[in-house]
From TrEMBL:
Places the protein is found: Cell membrane
Residues annotated as domain Major facilitator superfamily (MFS) profile: 25-469
GO cellular component: plasma membrane
Keywords noted in UniProt: Cell membrane, Membrane, Transmembrane, Transmembrane helix, Transport
PANTHER family cross-referenced by the UniProt entry: BLR6921 PROTEIN (PTHR42718:SF46), MAJOR FACILITATOR SUPERFAMILY MULTIDRUG TRANSPORTER MFSC (PTHR42718)
Main subcellular localisation: membrane
Lipid bilayer topology: Multi-pass membrane protein
Species for this entry: Rhizobium jaguaris
GO molecular function: transmembrane transporter activity
Protein name: DHA2 family efflux MFS transporter permease subunit
Spans through the membrane: 23-47, 59-79, 91-114, 120-137, 149-167, 179-198, 210-229, 235-257, 278-299, 305-323, 344-362, 368-387, 408-431, 443-462
Keyword check for Transport: yes
Keyword Transmembrane helix included in the entry's annotation: yes
């Protein structure tokens, strides 16, 4: 049985037995969301200080960012299986414990390899927290009340990115970068205690089998692909070894494509890509996201390393990009209704690429108010692209495939963040291969190169038809074929 199926008719939900749980369960899950969202945004502002403390370079520090995100992407598909096999409450509490222990160890790191290893432990906990938390909500609330519960739960997804850069800058400037990890400790303890006290431990299906061979092929393939990309800009292994790593990654991923056709329930359901809206939303949209996701890594580095600003100033200048998502949310449905998915995605990709390239015009002498306005405008284009592509991905997905689609879509979204950071770091490495310093002009070159990537998604967006996703957007522009 799918872990996200609705409960049988007549079942008494947890909130019916105890009305207090109507607020407590979303609050428990919100703690996990807040921890993950904070951790995803708070680190970047502290990268230069951590690099100095661990005797490494800011560019190499991207490993600490991408390792966490890649671990998330690898283990998200396993979360539902673990929850079904061992019980949602147990896995949720264990994931909070793992994430909290990982956070403590990150704060104690004395070298980059130790930080990378502890970030992987954090990522493993994070990969279980939010999917299992969402599963707990679905099982605790009837569908008629689920939207309200989800709204409460996802508030941290909005709050986290807003306060993350500022909080990270404050802690790094006035305390120590280690506190950006230790701040998770009280949240983790509160979440564990509340989960063990109030969340019911249910086991839905102990007979389901997980596709471990497929999981290993996809997971190892993605890890090797990212490791190869990392070494293109800052090689730590010989050139022949880089080529071998990238070739092995491609062989594993191509091998999985062939393998997936031979098993009943592969780790990744590739048949979803036969649906045009899902294919364009996740693949073309993913390529576009890779180009836009490099900016949150490049910009704080440019402000601190290139311009010499403090972490608190850098965080204050960049946090407004998260506010843009709040501004886009109310008008996103109107944009889709007026213009359709095809036009919104195409123009947001073009505009986003232009904005990324425009960061090359920002220098140390640029007024701070202008940087704030420009970052906010970038956030608008980024939010419009992300929200539209995410909505398109599931707009025409049949209900029977929705669970697998959201799982695969979530993995691809995490990979777009990971590869965006990796490629941004690779480009910085390439423009400084001669051993030169990370001056503002080097960052400008990296931004210009990064701006090309969103445009690579245009061929996919142009294949959309006006009627694609219209049951979601309400857009009824007549297609050329029907005209």
């Amino acid at each position: 049985m799918d872990s996200t199926d609705t409960a049988p008719e007549g079942q008494v939900f947890a909130i019916d037995r105890d009305p207090r749980l109507r607020y407590i369960i979303p609050a428990v899950v919100a703690v996990a969301f807040l921890m993950e969202q904070l951790d995803s945004t708070i680190l970047v502002t502290a990268v230069p200080d951590i690099a100095r403390s661990l005797a490494t370079t800011p560019v190499r520090m991207n490993l600490a960012v991408t390792t966490y995100i890649l671990t998330l992407a690898m283990f998200i598909p396993v979360s539902g299986w673990f929850a079904d096999r061992f019980g949602a409450r147990r896995i949720f509490a264990l994931s909070l414990f793992t994430f909290t222990i990982g956070s403590i160890l990150c704060g104690l790191a004395t070298s980059l390899p130790m930080l990378v290893a502890t970030r992987a432990l954090q990522g493993f906990g994070g990969a279980m927290m939010t999917p299992v938390g969402r599963l707990i909500l679905i099982r605790s609330f009837p569908r008629s009340q689920l939207v309200t519960a989800m709204t409460y739960m996802t508030l941290p997804a909005v709050i986290g990115p807003v306060i993350g850069p500022v909080l990270g800058g404050f802690l790094t400037t006035y305390l120590s970068w280690r506190w950006i990890f230790w701040v998770n400790l009280p949240f983790g303890i509160i979440g564990m205690v509340m989960a063990l006290r109030y969340v019911e431990d249910t086991v839905r299906d102990t007979s389901s089998k997980f596709d471990f061979p497929g999981f290993i092929m996809v997971g190892v393939g993605c890890v090797l692909l990212q490791y190869g990309i990392e070494n293109v800009g800052r090689p730590t292994i010989p050139v022949w070894a880089i080529i071998a790593v990238l070739a092995a990654a491609c062989l594993l991923l191509v091998g999985f494509i062939r393998y997936a056709k031979t098993v009943e329930s592969p780790a990744v359901d590739l048949t979803l890509f036969k649906l045009r809206t899902f294919r364009v939303g996740t693949l073309a949209g993913g390529i576009c996201r890779v180009g836009l996701n490099g900016v949150p890594f490049l910009l704080p580095l440019m402000l601190q390393v290139g311009f010499g600003l403090s972490p608190i100033v850098s965080g204050t200048l960049t946090f407004v990009s998260a506010l843009s998502s709040l501004a886009v949310r109310p008008v996103s449905s109107t944009m889709l209704r007026l213009y359709g998915f095809d036009r919104v995605l195409t123009w947001s990709a073009v505009f986003g690429a232009a904005i990324v390239a425009g960061f090359a015009l920002i220098g140390p002498e640029t007024p701070h108010w202008f940087i704030i306005v420009y970052v906010f405008v970038f956030g608008l284009s980024r939010a419009a692209q992300f929200m539209t592509s995410n909505t398109l991905s599931y707009s025409d997905t049949p209900a029977a495939q929705l669970s697998r689609a959201t799982s695969l879509g979530g993995v691809l979204q995490q990979l777009s963040v990971s590869f965006g950071v990796s490629i941004a770091a690779m480009l910085l490495g390439l423009v400084t291969l001669d051993g030169s310093q990370l001056t503002p002009d080097k960052f400008h070159m990296a931004f210009l190169l990064m701006a090309v990537i969103p445009l690579l998604g245009l061929p996919g967006f142009l294949k959309l038809r006006p009627e694609d996703g219209r049951q979601v957007s309400g857009h009824y522009r007549q297609s050329k074929e029907a005209a």
